[in-house]
Amino acid sequence: LHLPGSMSEVQELCRQLHAKIDAAEEEKYDMEIRVQKSTKEVRAGTAPLSHLQERDLRDVGDWRKNIEEKSGMEGRKKMFETES
């Protein structure tokens, strides 16, 4: 740790460190409150969906439209249809 030479410089460094600690403590408090709120919502079954979760739910519906293409079944179906 490099400490400045004069007492006023050390005091300023301490003020800066205290300001950073205060900011970190505020952020920690805010995060704890968000976690508590989210936990309560999940337990109550009322948690809102995030944008990522909404997108995932939309994707679930899409798989039914092209499942044959994704699994390679479309080509296999055509192969069997042409043999008959």
From TrEMBL:
Cross-referenced SUPFAM superfamilies, in alphabetical order? Answer: Troponin coil-coiled subunits (SSF90250)
Reading the lineage from the top rank, the first entry is Eukaryota
UniProt cross-references to InterPro entries, sorted A to Z: Troponin, Troponin_sf
* Swiss-Prot/TrEMBL keywords: Coiled coil, Muscle protein
Query: Where does the record locate the signal sequence feature?
Result: none
Coiled-coil region(s): 7-41
Gene Ontology cellular-component terms for this entry are: troponin complex
- Name the chain's protein: Troponin I, fast skeletal muscle-like
* Source organism of the structure: Bison bison bison
**Record gene name:** LOC104979801
